[in-house]
Predict the 3D structure of the following.
Amino acid sequence: MSVNQQAHTGPPYGQPQPGYQGYQQPAYGGQSLPGVPQSQYGAYNGPMPGYQQPVPPQGYFPSLGFPSKGSPVSLNSDTSSLAPNFIGSLRAPPTSGAPPPASGASHPSGHLAYSQFEHGDVQNGIPASAAPMQRPPASQPFLPGSAPTPVSQISTFQQYGPPPASVQQLRNHMAGMTIGSTAASAPPPAGLGYGVGPSSYPPTTGAPRPPAMPGPPLPGQTVAGPPPSSQPNHVSSPPPPSSMAGLHPGPPMSGLHGPPPPTHPPQPGYQMQQNGSFGQMRGPQPNYGGAYPGAPNYGSPPGPPPPPKRLDPDSIPSPIQVIEDDRNNRGSEPFVTGVRGQVPPLVTTNFLVKDQGNASPRYIRCTSYNIPCTSDMAKQSQVPLAAVIKPLATLPPEETLPYLVDHGESGPVRCNRCKAYMCPFMQFIEGGRRFQCCFCSCVTEVPPHYFQHLDHTGKRVDFYDRPELSLGSYEFLATVDYCKNNKFPSPPAFIFMIDVSYNAVKSGLVRLICEELKSLLDYLPREGNMEESAIRVGFVTYNKVLHFYNVKSSLAQPQMMVVSDVADMFVPLLDGFLVNVNESRTVIASLLDQIPEMFADTRETETVFAPVIQAGLEALKAAECAGKLFIFHTSLPIAEAPGKLKNRDDRKLINTDKEKTLFQPQTSFYNNLAKDCVAQGCCVDLFLFPNQYLDVATLGVVPYQTGGSIYKYAYFQLETDQYRFLNDLRRDVQKEVGFDAVMRVRTSTGIRATDFFGAFYMSNTTDVEMAGLDCDKTITVEFKHDDKLSEDSGALLQCALLYTSCAGQRRLRIHNLSLNCCTQLADLYRNCETDTLINYLAKYAYRGVLSSPVKTVRDALINQCAQILACYRKNCASPSSAGQLILPECMKLLPVYLNCVLKSDVLQPGPEVTTDDRAYIRQLVTSMDVAETNVFFYPRLLPLTKADVDSDSLPAAIRNSEERLSKGDIYLLENGLNVFVWVGVSVQQGLIQNLFGVSSFSQISNALSTLPVMENPFSKKVRSIVDMIQGQRSRYMKLIIVKQEDKLEMLFKHFLVEDKSLSGGASYVDFLCHMHKEIRQLLS
Ligand SMILES: [Zn+2]
């Protein structure tokens, strides 16, 4: 199976589209776009049987249409005796009668994740950029901004230099030593509508803003020579002990990196100062004398030694500020994709996209939108060239889904040589009779049925009528040539496979799952206007043996068949195993009623695992269809069977060369099984409920390689965890998914896709195969040069995904993206996207731990980022400012975000993190999109007590540091997996009463898994915030109440990622110092 199939030439297919009028470019102008395909395409698409996102019935009412439990039934089993029939009424699942939270269940296809960060405009703490900006008059000639290299320094981050002789001089120094986050050294390209030098900053006149100096003016200093010439020597003070702790205490740098000041010989001891401290100080000026034996009195104010200085966190790049600025600058206008190489708004900005020829950033985001023309440049910069692709991403309702194009039996038009699909960048020539491929330059005849005349500009006159000529994203209906065995696929099947061992039964899990399935089966994915889902369902339960169920509609009661020979798994029944839900409704309901009773008294604690997957696989094979297995599993599979595992957890391996084995599967059995699953289109979603180690690294292999998902609920307790689990299950069952998918990324000459990250399987070097691909799954693709690129032609990507829809229709989804190419490094750095870069780097590192010691991986990450920043510093920043830390505007958050990756549980586990947690997170991150990695590594922290109860907006986020927390406030922190509500010890009693319904701080229970429903504005507001945030994430997050100074606070502090972590992770300030040192080493 491959997307690279020979185009089939078929009979001509009607060219003219009479009556088509609506699809015109101008129509985009400001009017809202319909959320479903416009009917005008019907003219040549033919009918589009419901190509739209499946719309489930409104609301989620589990009892809807559910038959009443009938008369007693019994299960017939051929090999096992059954528990007494269950007749009595089951209690309703505690949550299923309630309406779905926020939007989780009622919008299964997930119009959820795009409206993030709708918070206000204020930030906690005063960012440095909010300080008044005044350029000291005398400083002008000496400012880096006025140096020949047009670096405009954004003075958000102030450099801390040795104190000069006066406030004025001090200011000069401070200005000159800005940790510049510089805008690029040339104006942004015209026409993009996006100046990289952000308009939200104070006017960038080339002069940095002097910092506010909290310390008193320093009298009596003498600094010879003009400030600029002395800058390189004064650039930084010795590392303050507090801020440098934990950093490499290597020898001081010797040698300066810039040209020595011509007018001003280096003073003894200056080199000693090159230690990477910067930013403005808090409190009094430090005593330099103590630090510099060579210049004991240099810069030292008289008087007692002041407290150790530290870098002011307000003076270093703030993620919150960057997010806010982007929201303010780019959130109001739609992002129109008509221009090559445009950098989209950040993932944290809520914006609309209008497709005018390039794929929406919801489908593809790149690390850079301007690629170096040569591989030498790319190597020099060390900026990875990668695209993060989410082929089936959910769009907000205001945006148009990709149109479905049907070329009939002839199939899509493709390049003869490289097989690229028709797209807006193909060039029609010779009056429209041939087209030249934009990827490989080969010329291909236009099939007669596809011929159209060109207008005077060389554009086909039907340009705007055809999505594949005018849009970045669209779909083709695939012909039989694109189908396995040249046969159109059958609709897929879902098989529910429930662990019924002792733990699963005892915890109430089995009953919960069965109750939920009774209603959830009415919400299987369906296409458009289809009355019911085409998906068939089947049921298996298991412990050491497997139980298959015949739920054929003609049966009065379900029948059970037990397979106890798990060594050679087979499916004991074909007819009646996979059924239509509506047809077999009564039998299924009866089965789901009885399963919990049948195993209620089980003593079986052992489970098998691989045979369960094998059983599902065999069932799909027998039915000749693709599908998904939903496996609910509780323990390490130690029962005698293929794929049996042993407990090999060993935390002592952490920080040793053998640590990598903790991430590797303990047997290759599952890799081979995964391969078989992919070949059949059998995707596995795994729900884990462990009470101890169950080897996620091994159990996760099949879900991971088949494009499935893993969910983990450690120490599952019905009361506290069922809501979260049910929400995840509902969303997982209902969400949009494609099966039997193959993705190929084609590129224009000069670059090619060389590496892939995500949940998939590859049997060759180009095709990414996924048994299933859902709307949340993301594939990161890295590109390398294989030739020179040209600035004129730019670079093109085309991602083609061949898949089977949930109704069994074979389709191709195409996404195109055009990028700019540059011969100047500054252009590269001006068009990077740090969030995407971090997504790539995290995935790269998380794969690295499979083969290399974790420390090696961490060091490589630091080194690569230091090289990226050093290259910028050397080639794009002002030469007069050597020794400063100057960050590219687009990458000024690279250090803080990189530090978060380095401190993450996979790369630097805290004592509370289990081996399974690490394996779980490693696999999870590998499929995350950019928005998910962004909030995962730098969690969102909101002051709930600052929320405006009368508005819909969220309170403004604050930075992730303990010092931003006030003990009189309540905060929410979320990272996509957990939501913490942190309560300060001095919170007003009234607020506690309103939110928790108790009269004092001490009475707040941190066993709460939801906030109590209280009828007051504050409680309503907070719950609506939590619901809103839950709705934006692809998983239901666990709610954890944390009281200040309580023991759970340790867990919470782990997520305050700007602070030093308990596991030894550096604070942001310290890490920035460290990066500065690394960069200087590279430059020397
Ligand atoms: Zn081609």
